[in-house]
Hints:
With about 625 residues, the protein is α+β, with helices and mostly antiparallel strands. The chain has a 7-stranded mixed sheet, with no helix packed on it. The two termini are about 20 Å apart.
Amino acid sequence: MRKRLLSLVAGVGVAGLVGAVGVGVAGAAGAVGGVAGAACVPGQVVGNGGFEDGTSPWVASSGVITSGGGQSAHSGGGFAWLDGYGTTHTDTLSQTVAIPAGCSAASLTLWLHIDTAETTTSTAYDKLTAKLGGSTLATYSNLNAGAGYVQRTFDVSAFIGQSVSLAFSGSEDSGLQTSFVIDDVALNTSGGGTTPPPTTPPPTTPPPADSTRTPASPAYTVSLSSDASGATWTGHESVTFTNASASPLNDVYLRLWDNYHGSCPSTPITVTNVTGGTAGALTVGCTALDIALPAPLAQGQSGTVGFDLKIVVPSGADRFGRDGAFSFIGNALPLLAIRDVAGWHLDPYTNNGESFYSLAADFHVVLDHPSGLQVPATGTSVDTPGASGRTVTTATATKVRDFAWAAGAFSKVSGTSPAGVKVNVYAVSGISASSAQSMLNTSISAIDAHAGRFAAYPYGEVDAVLDNNFWFGGMEYPGFVLDLVSTTALTHELAHQWWYGIVGDDEYNNPWLDEAFADYSTDLALGSSGTNCWNSVSWASSSEKITNSMAYWDAHSSRYSTVVYGYGKCALHDLRRLIGDSAMTNLLRTYAQSHWYGVSTTAEFKAAAQAATSVDLTSFWSTHRIDG
């Protein structure tokens, strides 16, 4: 999952996460020079956008680019701090960026924090202006102050093929201070029909099964019908499975994850009329249901459990929630828990990250719904007419760890990546057509960039569902992601198609194995090298480690994103610099392929990394606090 943005949106309306207060791009007036003869190279063109590498190529007023003094970075250690003096003052920050021709889209993103001592609710005393070329992108003021950083996104496609100045100017009056703090500036280009890096075909066979992980080879068959709104679904689910373990399988557990969102025992996920076993009581906050099998299954034997299912989506723009007329239905289908050498994994739900740990499975899901609702879903979908005024969407997905869908009158834009992946972007009302198109271009670029590094995307199709009211930033499911209008966040969620989806992990006990790897992959896709990012690491305690479990991070929630995402990806950048770019590229590609549709562990990754280099990595793991 993308960093949950609790600290970033506190005190700020989430609907304001994207967009700007001020004037939109008016065109290319004032552009300097041009790069009209260049071919489109999808990527990121702002230099030192995280302010980690000194001042170059920025031109800034004295003291603007800094790493302390009472403000903090969005990520890493450096940031740009304009104004904040409480006296008449002007600060400037600028650099020239060349936006290659031939691209079909360009998007500028930055993270902005504004704090002020002003008490007025009506007068803009202190102002920050953002410009590209001669056009004002936005103007902010003390009236926009709030806790934490907020991401601002601008469609700057009008400047494609030009070399222009990206400039910020902060002006402060003689009264109370206002600070404008900027970090992680990026200008991403995409589209243009460029050829992606060659992708390695995915492995034709999965890795050898780990006989300690059972029940194995799950196959889910689901048939659900919705009410008129798409918020209540009723029907039936069954799952067939095999005992892979030498130890008999006496029972199985269903994880009813979304019961976290109810008040146990009054729950939004209801399982009744169980067949193929005897249901026990709900446990773990009503998120685990034990089903005793009629007779123990020996190794290699199979069983089937079926049940009636009711799903009621609660109000709230969440990964399982309803935002007005739009429902987001993640983690709603009951899934089999895993028993391995540690026993049954019945960890609690975490709202700070993920608790999910499941084996690759096959899904055949039939969703009967009103024809006025779009129903994007995991897998490949086919729509057929249903009863009067209704449509039946049949989704098929193979070798995926979960199944998610959404329902609503979304707008939809679609495209196909140069490597042949079909990409669909669904947007709630309120998201502009240009934003949806920009995110389609981002998705197309990102899915091929990741495939070029880790092997081809195997699922054929991916759906991105956009809602700027999501408080958590974004959420990944196989072939299906939830996101804000954000190039960085969407690129991260699509990286999860490999790190969590294809290469699985125990997300509760080893969250770094998907989040750090997805953030590192995002940096690579967006052209960030993570230079010097480890220099800003500061541990909160001796017990804080990149490899800590969600049990630790739920008790230290303010440090979760900083350490697991930030320090985690910086450690991977450091590993790349230590063993070399080529060795790191080969390591991740071969590691992904050797765990294709399997499960990754920290110990396995450390062993693979050591095998990829002659450098002794013992001290590296210790310094970077990577245990396991």
